[in-house]
Amino acid sequence: MKFYAKVTSNDLTKALASISAWDGKTRLAVENALQNGTKAVARGANQRVAQRSGKLKKSIKTGFDRRKPEGMVRAKTPYAHIVEFGSKSYTVRAKNKKALTIPGGSALVLRKSAKIPARKGRPFIKPAFEAEEPKIVSNIRKVLNK
Fold first, then answer.
1. Name one Pfam family in it (predicted).
2. Which end of the chain offers a freer environment for a tag, N or C, measured as fewer CB atoms within 10 Å?
3. According to the model, what pLDDT value does residue 16 have?
């Protein structure tokens, strides 16, 4: 799942756009502040994520691109977006076979279609980012004002 969250501070956005004009020490300090903020968002997402088997929690990873500079927090399970955003109800129909095989207790149930109910979203990455955004912005402002 890719989830993009942008910092809403216009001053900070302009400052990050002109990062190539900074000296090496300032650039490194800003990159460190962004990287630490990215790790804090990942920790917050780990605390907030809904758990069944723990696979989703284990799949939360961070990344950082020094060229842009840009931090990334992502969940690598194929169903992470459904947990984060929810889904509407839909019907699954058999495509290549005559029936779907649905495990049901001690016996298998065969059906032509199955209705998957709607699911509410249980966000974990967005609230983590929203909680950390003011700290990230203030840390970068401290670096830039030195």
1. HK97-gp10_like
2. C
3. 66
Q: Which of 38, 46, 44, 39 is nearest to 70 (CA)?
A: 38
Residue with the larger pLDDT of the pair 118 and 25:
118
What burial letters (b/e) apply to 82-106, b meaning 16+ CB within 10 Å? ebbeeeeeeeeeeeeeeeeeeeeee
Average pLDDT over residues 112-141: 89
Give the C-alpha separation, 125 to 46, whole Å: 8
Which residues are registered as beta bridge partners of 108?
103
What residue segments make up the domains of the chain, in order of their start?
Answer: 1-81+121-146, 87-119
Question: What is the model's pLDDT at position 15?
Answer: 64
**What's the DSSP call for residue 14?**
H
Tokens standing for residue 131: 């909680």
Average pLDDT, stretch 81-104?
85
- Mind listing the pLDDT tens digit for each residue in 28-67? 888 888 899 999 999 999 999 988 888 999 999 998 887 7
pTM: 0.75
